[in-house]
Amino acid sequence: MFIFVVGLNHKSAPVEIREQLSFPEHILESSLHRLKSEPGIEGCAILSTCNRTEIYAATTDLEKGQAAVKRSFPTRAPCRKTTLPIAFTLTPFMMRYVIFSGCLLVWISMVLGETQILGQVRRAYQAACDYGTSNGIINTWFQQAITVGKRVRTETGIDQHAVSISYTAVELARQVFDSLEGRTALILGAGKMSELTLTHLIANGVTTVLVANRTRERADELARKCGGKAVSFAELEQHMGVADIVISCTAATHYVIRRNLVETVMAKRPERPLFLIDIAVPRDIEPAVGTVQSVHLFDIDDLNSVVDRNLAERQKAASQAEVIIEEEIHEFIKWLNSLFVVPTIVALRNKGDAIKEKELERVLGKLKSLSEKDKKTLGAMASSIVKQLLHDPVIQIRHYAASPEGHLYSEILQNLFSLDIAGQRPKGCDDNNLR
């Protein structure tokens, strides 16, 4: 049995291709069932997000399996299947690439260490289980990928350094207030960046959200999404007076918040710090605001500087993660290769015993005068010869089972002794597939 993955991601294909070859939720179940019914597919799972589409499949025939997966990409795309960009097609002996997706590393994610990926892997696996398209190989693979992802996060802390602008803003706020539980946030501007930052704030405990925007309809819309309240720009001083956190990202060409306004606000709340994040370009908040007592002001360059430092920390953690991943790859390959090795050893011994019994029967048929004791002695000798003859091949194949090439040795042994083992003589499994 083999496991392989076919797909594309943000590094191998632009969004106009990725969107055409995605599997949205409403077609996921039917797509999985259709793929599972294809010849050569024993189990399958689909991971489809805005950044990548990957089909994982277990098969006994790589050639048939890969063809089936390619046929299963959505047909609604205007691009022809003959030009389908396949980013990778891997056998079990190149698991490193795929395991990294479960381990949250950079080339599978747009953001190094992005914790969202582990959740996506979980959901893809759960869907395969719920819809009955998984099998033992797929189960073990995804379970190990998820386990490795957790281990990497726990042992390296790769996700503890924010590397997105919106989340970095939230992390800085937590440094100022220790906890965001029960805090009030005022959002100026209702664009995408404001919405992302607001989402992170709420996830980290902010309970009251005020949204101010020049266009009231857009403020109402964002407020409804987050369970907040739309407020008027004209009453900015009043709203800043009750806010702990102010996130500003408007399209204004001039300062929206000036020093004199903040001085007036802080005069009424001298003991309460005010945290301001200016994500806008041009800036919304006058730089002099940062000199006001108990005011903490960060602009987009401040955030980028923090992101750069945190990214460097994540890269260090990624290096540590590679060591963990190598260990887990070794264990998975060892397990996977054992699926080849054990049946091979059993078949080899059975064949040896069958030859022994056949030859004993032939010889004993000619030596009818032998006593029962002599027959047993002759049988024991034949058994000993077969056992000793097969001893070294069995020991060696078990040894090589732990290596990435373990299945090759198993297949060579099958060919040398003409062992016919169901599901272990796959077509398309040549050297090009195994490198």
TrEMBL record:
What Enzyme Commission number(s) appear in the record? 1.2.1.70
Q: State the domain notes.
A: Possesses an unusual extended V-shaped dimeric structure with each monomer consisting of three distinct domains arranged along a curved 'spinal' alpha-helix. The N-terminal catalytic domain specifically recognizes the glutamate moiety of the substrate. The second domain is the NADPH-binding domain, and the third C-terminal domain is responsible for dimerization.
Domain Tetrapyrrole biosynthesis glutamyl-tRNA reductase dimerisation residue range list: 320-419
NCBIfam families given in the database record: hemA
- What keywords were assigned to this record? NADP, Oxidoreductase, Porphyrin biosynthesis
Residue positions annotated to bind substrate are T49, C50, N51, R52, S109, E114, T115, Q116, Q120
What catalytic activity does the UniProt entry give for this protein? (S)-4-amino-5-oxopentanoate + tRNA(Glu) + NADP(+) = L-glutamyl-tRNA(Glu) + NADPH + H(+)
The keyword Glycoprotein is annotated on this UniProt entry: no
Residues that hold NADP(+) according to the record: G189, A190, G191, K192, M193, S194
This protein's superkingdom?
Bacteria
Question: What SUPFAM superfamilies does this protein map onto?
Answer: Glutamyl tRNA-reductase catalytic, N-terminal domain, Glutamyl tRNA-reductase dimerization domain, NAD(P)-binding Rossmann-fold domains
Q: Which GO terms describe its molecular function?
A: glutamyl-tRNA reductase activity; NADP binding
- What is its pathway? Porphyrin-containing compound metabolism; protoporphyrin-IX biosynthesis; 5-aminolevulinate from L-glutamyl-tRNA(Glu): step 1/2
Annotated active site: C50 (nucleophile)
Q: Tell me the subunit arrangement.
A: Homodimer.
Give the record's GO biological process terms. Answer: protoporphyrinogen IX biosynthetic process from glutamate
This chain belongs to which protein, by name? Glutamyl-tRNA reductase
Q: Report the function annotation for this chain.
A: Catalyzes the NADPH-dependent reduction of glutamyl-tRNA(Glu) to glutamate 1-semialdehyde (GSA).
- To which protein family does this belong? Belongs to the glutamyl-tRNA reductase family.
Additional notes on this entry: During catalysis, the active site Cys acts as a nucleophile attacking the alpha-carbonyl group of tRNA-bound glutamate with the formation of a thioester intermediate between enzyme and glutamate, and the concomitant release of tRNA(Glu). The thioester intermediate is finally reduced by direct hydride transfer from NADPH, to form the product GSA.
Q: Which intervals hold domain Quinate/shikimate 5-dehydrogenase/glutamyl-tRNA reductase?
A: 171-306
Specify whether Acyltransferase is a keyword of the entry. no
Output the InterPro entries linked to this UniProt entry: 4pyrrol_synth_GluRdtase (IPR000343), 4pyrrol_synth_GluRdtase_dimer (IPR015896), 4pyrrol_synth_GluRdtase_N (IPR015895), GluRdtase_dimer_dom_sf (IPR036453), GluRdtase_N_sf (IPR036343), NAD(P)-bd_dom_sf (IPR036291), Shikm_DH/Glu-tRNA_Rdtase (IPR006151)
**Top class in the EC scheme:** oxidoreductase
Per the UniProt record, one Pfam family is GlutR_N
